[in-house]
Amino acid sequence: MQLYEAIHGRRSLPQLGLPAPDASQLARIFAAAGRAPDHRLLRPWRYLVVAGDARAALGELFYQAIAASDPARAENDAVKLRQMPLRAPMILVAVLCQHDHPTVPDWEQWLSLGASVQNTLLALHGEGFAGMWRTGDLAVHERVRQGLGLSANEHIGGFIYVGTPLAGKAAPAEPESLWQVWTPGA
Hints:
186 residues, alpha+beta, NADH Oxidase, 5 strands, 39% helix
């Protein structure tokens, strides 16, 4: 797959089924993730792979987290919360591993994580899969963070739902000009 073909052809697809990437495909995908821009080579990211029965356990963690902070919502959304991780055969949890570094501020480490996730999404596409990067209140919920075993310096950057596309999606409209030439003094 050519570079621009891959970039322009990648879509966030919510309908994902089997198969999911196997171990050798994941190795290539995470090798691509590891090539993200990374000031001082801090590697401020890592990924958790959630597949099989672990998806149901993640759904229960989602439910328990909301039940602890908003019991009425948990009661209303119990099925939805428990079913969320079952929408795809695999979920990759993108984790920011924040480093206290004198020349690499936190915001730059978050950008590096974002670049790593973009590489992951492109690599998934290159392998014939699709991914949907989701965030939301569960990504910042302390109980979810703890339930996933994250350290105090780690944060969830999102949940990447992964699988084989079950349906296509039209290309988005071309954006208005995203760039301009800067002219000093103008």
